[in-house]
Write a structure and sequence with these properties.
The structure is a homodimer. Chain A is an alpha+beta fold. Among the domains of chain A are: 62-160 and 217-307, 2-Layer Sandwich (Aldehyde Oxidoreductase, domain 4); 484-618, 2-Layer Sandwich (Aldehyde Oxidoreductase, domain 4). In chain A, 27% of the residues lie in helices and 25% in strands. Chain A has 18 helices and 28 strands. In chain A, α15 packs parallel to α16. The radius of gyration of chain A is 28 Å and the shape is globular. Chain A starts with a helix and ends in a 13-residue tail after the last strand. At the A-B interface, α2, β19, β20, β21 and β25 of A face α2, β19, β20, β21 and β25 of B.
Chain lengths: 734, 734
Amino acid sequence: MKEEERDNYYVQGLAVPETPEPGAEPKPWSKTAIVGQARPRVDAYERVSGTAIYPSDYTFANMLYGAILRCPHPHARVKKIDISGARQIDGVHGVLADTTTGGDIRWPYVMQWPYEAEKISKLFDSHCRFEGDAVAAVAAATPCQAMDGVRAIKVDYEVLPFVADERQALKPDAAKVHDDSNQVNKQTYSRGNVEQGFGEADVVLEKTFRTACELHTPLELHGCVANWDGDRLTIWESTQGVYAIQSKVAELLGLPLSKVRVIGHYLGGAFGSKLQPGKYTVIAALLARQTGRPVKLFLAREETFLVVGNRPPANMTIKAGIKKDGTLTALEFTGIATGGAYPAGGMTLLDWLVRDLYTCPHVKTETTDAYINGGPARPFRAPGHPQCSWALEQIIDDLAVAIGMDPVELRFKNIPTVSQGREGTPPYTTTGLEECITKGAEAFGWQQARQRTAAGRKEKGHLKRGVGMGSCVWFAGGGGPPSTMIVKLFSDGSVNLNMGASDIGTGTKTIMAMVVAEELGIKPEMIQIEHGDTGTTQYATSSGGSKTVPTEAPTVRSATIEVKRQLLSMAAVDLAADPADLRYNGQYIEVAGAGSRKIKITDITKLKKRGVVVGVGYRGPNPENKVINPFGAQFCEVEVNIKTGEVRIVRFLGAHESGRVMNRLTFDNQVFGGITMGIGLGMTEFRVLDTNRTGKMVNRNWHDYKLPTALDVPADMISIAIEMPDSEANNTGA
Amino acid sequence: MKEEERDNYYVQGLAVPETPEPGAEPKPWSKTAIVGQARPRVDAYERVSGTAIYPSDYTFANMLYGAILRCPHPHARVKKIDISGARQIDGVHGVLADTTTGGDIRWPYVMQWPYEAEKISKLFDSHCRFEGDAVAAVAAATPCQAMDGVRAIKVDYEVLPFVADERQALKPDAAKVHDDSNQVNKQTYSRGNVEQGFGEADVVLEKTFRTACELHTPLELHGCVANWDGDRLTIWESTQGVYAIQSKVAELLGLPLSKVRVIGHYLGGAFGSKLQPGKYTVIAALLARQTGRPVKLFLAREETFLVVGNRPPANMTIKAGIKKDGTLTALEFTGIATGGAYPAGGMTLLDWLVRDLYTCPHVKTETTDAYINGGPARPFRAPGHPQCSWALEQIIDDLAVAIGMDPVELRFKNIPTVSQGREGTPPYTTTGLEECITKGAEAFGWQQARQRTAAGRKEKGHLKRGVGMGSCVWFAGGGGPPSTMIVKLFSDGSVNLNMGASDIGTGTKTIMAMVVAEELGIKPEMIQIEHGDTGTTQYATSSGGSKTVPTEAPTVRSATIEVKRQLLSMAAVDLAADPADLRYNGQYIEVAGAGSRKIKITDITKLKKRGVVVGVGYRGPNPENKVINPFGAQFCEVEVNIKTGEVRIVRFLGAHESGRVMNRLTFDNQVFGGITMGIGLGMTEFRVLDTNRTGKMVNRNWHDYKLPTALDVPADMISIAIEMPDSEANNTGA
């Protein structure tokens, strides 16, 4: 199908017709009318027209604006704070500072009857361990007055020696970030016997790799609006999970969960950096309590570069052994990473691909996390995976060269069917890696491209081409309990869907509406979604890790099935029939085998009487001792200017086995977004700390920190969906 | 107990201890720990501190203000509208007018894909039938600009003859409000044979009474804020029932119910006048659609006097027969009332007390409703009842004088136990009338007061005292299905209560929290309520008619019991026991008879895993062929200045059998409020229409329309609660 033709389908919200492969078995889901279509988002109009209200758009009467005073040094101790200047600034209504360092505000003073306050001792720590650590905060009538207030606070710092590189941090003479060693954690893993494995190998290679620190820079800044109604706190936060914010804030402020309402309806990007509340969340709540007014506290762009998270830098050494026939015999991995100045899982999943991507009997890994005087690590679109992939896939390519085998061929030799890195090596419900590589290579024209670019490299001229590929598995992705959802059917047959999960921009709301529409046989336009609100919507874990749709879709389907069950039971009264003999048929419920005995849904007496039918749905468990992971393969062609070193990506193809594709439009866009972010990490994005002189970040803005733009990514991006029936990964249940 | 002592209990939220009567059976509910207490409202702090956000408080960024052009004549025809002047006014963004009368805005033009618009032909009717009928509307950046815009619209009216009195309206030569007769409706009722009844009587009296038109003047004005998110309309309305607003607006605008979200969290008074959307609701929605911005449209105080409702004037003739022993033999009633210029149930329930308050074998009634050029009637704190009571209770007193019997004694002779006015004369589950009169008379000191005031009247001086009493039954009050509620228990044991019903100022939220707290054994402070939102809360009928607590309390109890059932089932896994053997014990669930085998609620594994437990509750049906009605008796002592005619109410006592008193504090306040409103109707409140010359209302403000103030009601008001066990009126169920 031509691009324009496909676009036309997208615009109309129709399913892109599949071209059936000759002789192929029909897929079990080929009968669905709506699920699987390429549909525009249910909130597309709001998003593109500017009427969607993001947390950063909220404005309330009488609202104040918060701002945070941040330590300008990578490592310092606050000796004295004088907040009197801030109180002189026009419009300043509240100041928060720690009295033990000289501020005159006692806190936590805010929580009184009927709750006991927990001490939030580390909100403002007089020992500042990275540039941007919070020192004090101000609430004022305008954002500029709040910033003026912050600037008017006088702080006397004792500047301390710093360390800003994880490799230096592990040296014995390095400055200490905390009192003890800078080594946070060290973990080891092993299976088989790598020495034996290297002994069996025909070729053994060892190489060291480093990936830079990549920063989360979502379009919407981090922050919230906080307001108190009596003893109840409401927070409108830009977040991936309202329940995660609720539980942490309730714990910190000593409030019952029911008294902390967190609302997050839209989100302008997060990528893992908005899974938890920030200090800004608690600060906004305390300032709102202090001033008795709503307080809006969104960070400035510069602050988000410093404090909201990063994919930590990683130093990785891999030793790999292989037989001439392409069989991997052993992998040994050593990784050093850093979560920044506080425990933040700097090395999380850093060794995972070594453990699990390819079949290999002998594996040993060691990962070390070190403190530095730097901002915190956060989950960032598959923690650890891109870093490890960078190292592993390069050495695999090197091994291919060493044994004279096509890199694709080598990977085919080592396709796993069980998750080797996990206890008990449980099988995958499906392993799509081989099909991803096969279909991807075919669509990319791998063989032809290899030959063409190799031939081209022998020709004259300074522009040379090259092709490469890589495989991947994602550690999670199958979703799972807990999740609760409610589907409420109104007496006119229209539906309200009540879901706690956030739609972090991936199209979750649209897919949930499609599932309900499919199951009920109604138009998605009849469905309205309420979501992301701990006060009024149901429990969900945070959205992230590619697990939202597989967690929530079976849940909403279960709720819809419960609505249908109740409708059948109600219609049975009208039809004087056994519910078991009734069939739900979209607009009607009919007696099986007696099509004339039927009733319109909207005519059911009990429905009209009750006003609504409410179905509660739960996410059922996943199959025991099995693993549901998605696989993928990427192929890329680049052009290199061998005079200047400039690299241009000519084309990129991603082939992904991600389970069933619910909405082809949002699926493809997720793949394209992932490719773009990978290009950023590989080519242009890196945090620069002045490790020797000042320890400060020198590229804390979008001018100096280079995100890929439309000009940096190829126009020729292709997404291939590998859909494999998986009867074990569609659980609904109680 | 002394007043101060009782107040002290109220402030502390403790139950007022009952003084047990010697030999009295303990009441079945005497064991409840929380229900029955006098507790301050759960939202008391918000209400008194000014932080409660009422619909009229909502402010949104970019919001416009709406205003309505109203016909200044009681009867006129719009010949031409010129809106060009309005468009010249600074800040005017939208104008709505009917093109057929010369405005240049076509409507309904607003509803497009994917919905077909219904024609809302009567939003602006060129035939204006009362002073205040809507003619056009404007949206502007400020309220004053909107009013300027309205004033700049030029309307050419043909002024028509009018009729402003229901008695004149029924005359053949009266001006016609509609094309046909002004008689809207006439209804008759009869049982027995009144002629026979009057024949059996020793005394027959006939008298004619009139009650004036009383206006709804709640503190919060009528209105809403409307906003569109794409194809979904959200309305924040000051309303008694969000679902009623939703269904009417959806019907008028041709939208699915799921696409109309109505939110009404607080309400500053309604008394029956906010049971339905106003034209202002639809106008605000259309102006918001036209301008693409939120529109706030709250009426001015003067407009509410003209258009939002009234208790219609009633003309009532009663003929009554009685035997010397006090047995009523016959009642004949003729009533004429008016719903205003449009069908609005002017005579609703006007004859009810004649049919049902006293035992009487022979009854005949005839009620007639007439159109006049006046504002619409609306339900107003027991439609028809106070009017009829005014007539009936006066003639009963006259009968007592005629046969020389104490008025209390006469009423005792005619206490009903079945609802005679209803088909099949079904029995009441309880009839508290006798006990109300007995206890009331005793507490009031009826006999002594009669003697004392009679003696006083023979003394010199111009200040004389008198006492009187009256009985009542309310036609409804037992509540009933449908109602759905959800109780959500968080993993820390705190609770969210999700209810669609509005708390119209009567304390519904507080009582629901008390029921949940009672049933779960937790503090009411652990409960947060979300209510009054068609998007996120469950189905409820409108709050009114004294049926909210009896409808919703069993529903929320049912939801709570379902939560407990699930907790037992989850705890059974931890305790390795049969759920049937487990007992819920507030903080713990324990194995019956094995107190040591127990688990804390917050330790239940499945609860921690699932995050929340959700219980859905429904209101069960009432007993068949029985009637649940509340009864009451009021006693009053007045002082009359026989020189000036001035009347001062010295003291007032209300004794009410209203079922179980859930919260003694809010119960008493409802009684005091009712007494105050009765004093207004009886003594100071009446709409004045200039019936002869202009047909216009002459007292359309709080200066000229006299609401009773604190100085007009007695400091000595006493509320007595008659609680009678009623095992049939506490249904929970599916």
